[in-house]
Sequence to fold (384 residues):
Amino acid sequence: MKDQLKQEFTNIYNKPAQNGWFSPGRVNLIGEHIDYNGGLVMPCAITFGTYLLTAPNEDNVFRFRSTNFDTYLEIPVQADYKKDGEGWFNYPLGVIEHFVKGGHKLSGLDMLFYGDIPIGSGLSSSASIEVVTAFALNKLFNATYSKLDLVKIAKSVENNFIGVNCGIMDQFAVAFGEKDKALMLNCDTLEYQAVDSNLGEHVLAVINTNKPRKLAESKYNERVQECATALKQLQQLLDINNLCDIDTDTFKQYQHLITDETVKNRATHVIEENDRVKLAAKALAANNLTEFGRLMYASHDSLRDLYEVSGKELDAVVEYAKTDKNVAGARMTGAGFGGCAIALVKVKAFDEFNAAVTKYYTDKIGYAPSVYSSLIGDGVGILF
Ligand code: GLA
Fold:
């Protein structure tokens, strides 16, 4: 891959790339729609990701090219940048804007991006491209940001430049991920532990529904808003900063403060899901994959019924998984509204699972999913 991309860079820019960088995507094992509610999540970085090759130019411009898209951007080095339509280059452009606003003097740079994360699949291709750009600029222009600063910059780009009110999980996971580890991240304090992903005789299967994620961003922002409403109503009697500051038992005593049934359902999901992550961490530590799998299924059911971010495609994958004795657990991962599901599948039965879930899904939905056996990889770093 590296050599092919280097060649591509030379073909486009008529000079060799000087530096290469890589940032992965992520899956989240459990703890969904929790990060912007200040609770616990358990993501891991995957081996798919975004590659960035760079070389300085003397023309005082930023050039954004990608091997995935025909669209590209060339823009002068200036003091201010605005989002330009819906193009993919807005993600790195937003990062540049952030560095410039932070007082860093940048100069002309030719960039070539390549991503092997299926785009819009809920595996965080956007966090991946933001973090790889922030990491590269930090090194190239000696900005001396810490890795956590880069995570916060990437999140701010997504919130303020792109306009999605996401939490910090994705950017954190792709920056801090470690091979064969899951990150137990407290999204309020940002304390985290890298724990052995300990899947025993299981492998993590990623099943892409291949459903285009239409309306995902507006629905996502709607959920964020609903949680804010729930929090505000609970704060009438409770001294809390986040929904995840209370557990299920406490919530039961105060849920009457939430006037709207839908909003109450959203809060119920969040608070119960946060409790599930605590149980899942214990199960993983005790190597109890049966219990971990049960919690995954419970998480999916709650995202389907209470949070309403699943859909018939993701449900079909999980429905099939429940019938397969070689699967310990399955659930949708990421924001939902299409995208990917994950399943813990016995290593020796992976091919059988792949064939069976593909058939079940295709019969039901009308087109095939893509099924991968995922490897848990490292976070952002230098390629060369
Ligand atoms: C998206 C967001 C994350 C998180 C998940 C849901 O991936 O970017 O911040 O909220 O959805 O858990």
